[in-house]
Amino acid sequence: MARPGLGEPGPPSLPPAGPLPPRPPGQPALGFGSGIHNCIGSPLARLEAQAALTELVRRLDNPRLVEDPPPYRRNAVLRGPRHLAVAYDGLKR
Ligand code: HEM
Q1: Residue range 9-59, pLDDT digits in tens
Q2: Is the predicted pLDDT of residue 84 greater than 60, yes or no?
Q3: Pocket around ligand 1: residues whose beta carbon is below 6 Å from it?
Q4: Is residue 8 in some structural domain?
Q5: Of the chain's two ends, which shows fewer C-beta atoms within 10 Å, N or C?
């Protein structure tokens, strides 16, 4: 779901980055890699994601799950919802 470098400001002539494209079916989820080239920035990325998601949740007006419970992966190792659609009425400042 996340792409490193997407939020970096580019040259002023470039249009702002748009939403992430949907992941093609069958393509594995983006992670931090493993082994000797495991992502060295993963602690910072996790901290940033935590701060961003906390602020997003604070700003959503009346957030609610579109599907409750959401559809879960059929995988005992990689657990979690396949997607988590959230509806909301507006954004608070
Ligand atoms: C959501 C955010 C991020 C994701 C999903 C991500 C993902 C990855 C992945 C998959 C790799 C391994 C690439 C490979 O196997 O060759 C990697 C490597 C790396 N990442 Fe990240 N990354 C993120 C954020 C960051 C940040 C914030 C930094 C630095 C501040 C960073 C610095 C690096 C570096 C230096 C490597 C190379 C490590 C090596 O080759 O030994 N990454 N990242």
Answers
A1: 555 666 766 666 666 666 665 689 888 989 999 999 999 999 999 999 999
A2: yes
A3: 2, 4, 30-33, 37, 39-41, 44-45
A4: no
A5: C
Give strand ranges (E) for the chain. Answer: 60-61, 64-65, 86-87, 90-91
In a domain, 60, yes or no: yes
Domain span at 46: 35-91
- How many structural domains does the chain have? 1
Question: Within a domain: residue 17?
Answer: no
Closest protein CA for atom 36 of ligand 1: 39
Q: Which of 29, 35, 23, 34 is nearest to 75 (CA)?
A: 29
